[in-house]
Prior knowledge:
The protein has helices spanning 8-18, 49-55, 86-92, 98-105, 116-124, 149-160, 170-178, 182-205, 212-225, 288-305, 314-331, 337-342, 421-429, and strands at residues 25-30, 36-38, 41-42, 63-66, 77-81, 109-112, 131-134, 165-168, 230-231, 236-239, 260-265, 267-269, 272-273, 276-281, 381-384, 387-390, 395-398, 401-404, 411-412. It is of the alpha+beta class. The protein folds into two domains: 8-176, Creatinase/prolidase N-terminal domain (Creatine Amidinohydrolase, Chain A, domain 1); 182-429, Alpha-Beta Complex (Creatine Amidinohydrolase). The strands form six sheets. It has a six-stranded mixed β-sheet, with helices on both faces. A three-stranded antiparallel β-sheet has the order 9-12-13. Strand 7, helix 6 and strand 8 form a beta-alpha-beta unit. The radius of gyration is 24 Å and the shape is globular.
Amino acid sequence: MQTTLPNRLFIRNRANLAAQLPPKSIAVFTANEPMPRNGDEFYPFRQQSDFFYLTGINEENAFLILAPDYPDERLREILFIEPYDEVKATWQGEMLDAQQATGISGVKTVQGSDAFWMTLNDIVYSGYGDTIFLNSYEYPKYECAVETIQQRFVKDVKQRYPMHRYGRTAPILNALRMIKSEDEIAITRHACDITSKAFRRCLETVKPDLYEYEVQAEIEYIFKQNNATGHAYAPIIAGGRNACCLHYSKNQSQLHDGDLLLFDIGCEYKNYSSDLSRTIPVNGKFTERQKQCYNAVLRVMKEITQLYRPGGCINEINETTHRLMEREMIQLGLFTEEDVKRQDPNKPLERKYLMHGMSHHIGLDVHDSIDKFKRFEPGMILTCEPGIYIREEGIGIRIENDLLITEGEPVNLFEGLPIEIGEIEAAMQR
């Protein structure tokens, strides 16, 4: 599936990256490959985010070379796409041609991917590619036993050119991707709008005795109806105690009268993510205890939302939230001030009921960056997501908005979506 995004977005992204490369450097990228599912089946193709950020191309067997100092201007940007294969086109659909690739990416020089290594040789040995910048996914909390095509590509390039210097594009691109352009903000707004529609649908349809997967089906229907690619991440539809599992995604349990239902959902639209959490009563009415817990989280959310301004940072939001939630937990009777004074400083009591961070950047990946010390700047989009999880009471609550950093007040991209108890109950009664 190709996008209809303006190619000015990708032209600007490449220029921003090229401007940060040292003299006589080149940057080289490979597209993703199909991921095997089972038998002769593959998972639906999803482009590697950095490759998409620079090209807008949603195809496999593709490469990109950026050589800003190369004397021949035609070869300063080269996009390589898979040569036309009549058999593949017959079985899998029409393939991208050079003119279409230029229209999508804005790269004027497009060659077949079978010419990639020969072209790279010419540039690398020309004297204008002394340092080769390679791409990899760098996220400190992520571990995967499967070697990606990007990792294999890095090994291949280094084996072919062992005497060259090497650099990493990830730090440059991570920093660039944190600040969203107006085009990216508009796309993300639309992704949030679709996700909002899905949540509103759930407010109308959730009731006791449904199964979590039935609620998920309603969400997926709205996503597809509105041209979203699908989920930006595995959706969490967690009833009762299931909500106390932070990454619960089985979504197979029955919903019971009197329980809460926690949503953590977000559609992916034109490769950009949204991320929403809400918690609602299965029967449409919060109990008094549920109200107490929900309003505790909501009060803290409103307070920390004001920290999403230029100069703030994720680390300060985390520290502030845990301090505020500790106060709320005391009021909820989970522990006392005396208990806090006697607690092990390495095992704060409040961490039993709130175990996660409150914010992350979102964009082409739902977790776009994890620099929790980076000061906020206009154009960043981050989540705000405090919660409380009381396993012994079967209560799990998380409330999450996506916030755009501006010169002044943060902009809530889910503005108008029911969040107060009265709003939620009224919407469910309708």
